Amino acid sequence: MLERLYEQRLPVQAVLADETVTKVGIRKSLAMRECQWELVEQLIPVLRPLAKATTIMCGENHIGLCFIYPVLLNMANNTLSANESNLAAIRSFKNTVRKELTTRFKLLSRLLAESIPIMACMLDPRFKHLKFFPDDVREEAQARLTQLVREDGEVEQPGATGEEEIADNVGV
């Protein structure tokens, strides 16, 4: 909606400037100053990826648990990185949204590597290498998944002792 308002900036300003269409009191309350248009212009590229992420996360046909952290981390690390060329209000907005995403989804938590969405990412071929995470979180998640697989193997075969059973099954 904000993008469309910006695209229609000139017609909107023309209608507001026309005294036969818009009363003076209404014009003063609706007219935007140049600094406000500049803010809108810089806010649109920030809001566009947030809208796309919201659409992806709310989709009924294609969203999976494994999409959550790749999308969130991409936004936190790339889309919401404040640039010096941004207006102060845009930098503040980006920092606030990044901070809220980091806090709400515990993006910096040490327990993140053990979470179910991260395990889902590792099992999905599109995200299995966890390139969107720092090395330490990636290694910890891989170790946790390996541990879960080993535990599951022990539950299915209660008499198994690991390498000895493998050697027996292979015939070595």
What does it look like?
This protein has helices spanning 2-7, 9-17, 24-30, 34-58, 68-79, 88-104, 116-123, 135-156, 163-170. It is elongated. Helix 4 packs antiparallel against helix 5 and helix 5 runs antiparallel to helix 6. The chain is built from nine helices and no strands. It is mainly alpha-helical. The chain has a domain at 61-157.
Briefly characterize the structure:
This protein is mostly helical and 172 residues long. It has a domain at 61-157. The protein contains 9 helices and no strands.
> Which spans of ≥5 residues are poorly predicted at pLDDT below 50?
166-172
Helix % is 55-70%
Whole-Å distance between the termini? 69 Å
The chain-level structural class is: mainly alpha
Care to count the β-strands?
0
The run of helices and strands is HHHHHHHHH
